[in-house]
Write a structure and sequence with these properties.
Elements (H helix, E strand, L loop, with lengths): L2 H14 L2 H9 L2 E6 L7 H16 L4 E6 L7 H9 L5 E5 L8 H5 L9 H8 L2 H11 L3 E16 L14 E4 L3 H9 L3 E4 L5 H6 L5 E4 L1 H6 L8 E17 H5 L3 H35 L3 E3 L5 H5 L2 H7 L3 H12 L2
Parallel strand pairs: 1-2, 1-3, 5-6, 8-9
Antiparallel strand pairs: 3-8, 4-7, 4-8
Helix pairs in contact: 3-12, 8-14
Length: about 325
């Protein structure tokens, strides 16, 4: 999108938002607007609202954060660009859109790079997370913390998936990503990239056998109605980022920068706790509706099958070093 047009649309949209936004701004010396593509009530949205409450209290009402969920300030890619240009102050986004911008994010988006959600948290909360934050900084984004995007697993309408051989010849919808297409090929399955909104009908009509996603998405999309076999292989455990525009950051005093960073870090366990509760709720809902969840599979053969994917996407010494550091993290 043309940035001048984007800037104009956002400014107009903010003016048209009316009295509520104007009143909000009048209450605070510093008003920060935060964008999210997820709907109202989603764990990421509620975590940033928690951050805003804490920030207002600890600044004695000087600093406020207004959260705009459900892509109210634009779809994810546009929201990221607007945050880079300082039109939006903060953004919560998945790592996917950054893969071509921040090379390090592509590495942590590889299949089975994380052994578990806990492993991902330890990696992202440590020196590796700091290294990736430097990559974001090069593109005018200051990382406040890393949220949890959940674990993506396979589900289908045909049979339980318990081993790699069960995937052979099956057709799975994947995101429009070369990494995902290559992942499915390495597992012996056929990848069918398609928009998310077409998945339900495509499974229902047999165009595809299944798809892959985290449990809340599997639940709220209704996909469990047409694909009752869900396997917790957790092939992708995706971090998400909460970042503030460098331009907005530099307008803050050093004291306010420190406060925002502190509260941003504190919002991370809040978000992860909300996410865990959401996963438990969704799992209970799909099981009650008749879904069959396969657990405790041997993941090693799935991991071993990724050798050609890693050979293709982990080609530079820097990438190989980062993978080694991630795998060595305990």
């Amino acid at each position: 999108m043309n940035m001048k047009l984007t800037r104009t649309l956002l400014i107009c949209g903010t003016i048209l938002a009316g009295g509520a936004s104007a009143a909000f701004a009048a209450d605070c010396e510093v008003q920060l607007r935060s964008a999210d593509t997820h709907p109202d009530g989603y764990p990421t949205v509620e975590a940033v609202r928690w951050l805003g409450t804490q920030l207002k209290e600890r600044s004695q009402g000087r600093i406020c954060v207004e959260v705009f969920p459900a892509s109210a300030l634009g779809e994810e890619k546009d929201a990221i660009e607007q945050t880079q240009f300082g039109v939006i102050d903060m953004v919560r986004a998945s790592f996917g859109p950054f893969n071509n911008l921040v090379p390090e994010t592509q590495i942590v988006s590889l299949p089975y790079i994380f052994r578990s959600a806990d492993h991902m948290h330890k990696v992202m909360d440590g020196p590796i997370g700091d290294q990736i934050a430097e990559g974001f900084a090069k593109h005018d984004l200051v990382v406040l913390g890393y949220y949890d995007g959940g674990a993506r697993s396979f589900y289908n309408s045909q049979k339980p998936i318990k081993e790699v051989a069960d995937l052979k010849g099956m057709k799975f919808r994947v995101m429009q990503s070369d990494v995902f297409v290559d992942m499915m090929s390495a597992l012996g399955a056929n990848a069918t990239p398609m928009p998310y909104g077409e998945v339900y009908s495509s499974i229902q009509t047999g165009v595809i056998d299944g798809a892959e996603n985290n449990q809340p998405s599997y639940d709220t999309s209704g996909h469990a109605e047409v694909a009752k076999y869900y396997t917790l292989d957790e092939h992708l455990i995706m971090p998400e980022v909460l970042a503030v525009s460098k331009l907005s950051w530099e307008k803050l005093s050093p004291e306010d920068q420190a406060l925002l960073k502190e509260v941003g870090q504190e919002s991370v366990p809040v978000m992860r706790d909300l996410w865990n509760k959401k996963v438990a709720e969704s799992e209970a809902a799909v099981v009650k509706a008749g879904a069959e969840i396969t657990r405790d599979i041997d993941k090693q053969p799935f991991i071993d099958a990724m050798a050609p994917v890693y050979e293709k996407y982990v080609a530079t010494p820097e990438a190989k070093d980062l993978v080694a550091k991630i795998q060595a993290t305990e």
